[in-house]
Amino acid sequence: MIGRLGDLWLDTPLAFWLVLAACLYFAVMAVRLTVIDVRHHLLPNRIVFPSYGVAGVLLLAAVATVLVAGADAAAVPDGGARLFGLPGGRILAGGAVLWLFYFLLRLLYPPGMGFGDVKLAGVLGMYLGYLGWGHVFAGTFAAFLLGGVWSLGLLATRRGSLKSAIPFGPFMLAGTAAAMLLLPAA
Fold first, then answer.
1. Count of Cβ atoms closer than 10 Å to residue 38 Cβ
2. Largest CA distance in the chain
3. pTM given for the model
4. Which of 52, 61, 49 is nearest to 19 (CA)?
């Protein structure tokens, strides 16, 4: 994401500000949801549902700005977040694919995942989809890796058992943040 922001700043400053606003919103949302999920094992709809609109509007507006400026191919690699030639399609597809993946996990083993995690997955997929399919995969993988390491730590210190419920939202958010910050844009 850092590389993408640098490219946007040089070529289309308005898109830079839109993506930066989306990232700042993500950071605030992530902190609020992490605190609430750790304390109450809940990801409130009043935070998650508006996040679809905020992420969608800001990221799609950034894509539109890049396309209007004509900088898609030259300075910003895949700045249109295209899917099958449709500008911005990867943002929407990333959200849909990640939502569907978590929904299937919930469907296969309902006690293993709350529906708040499913709803949050769509928002995170939009952010990751903006950057590329590799980011969608890496962010999802990082979430499960971090959650697994935390669970093993709880088991090793005998602070939890195999039946212990852990909030997964913070790990989803941390995995997404790690993919956004650590991986170069597609």
1. 12
2. 57
3. 0.91
4. 61
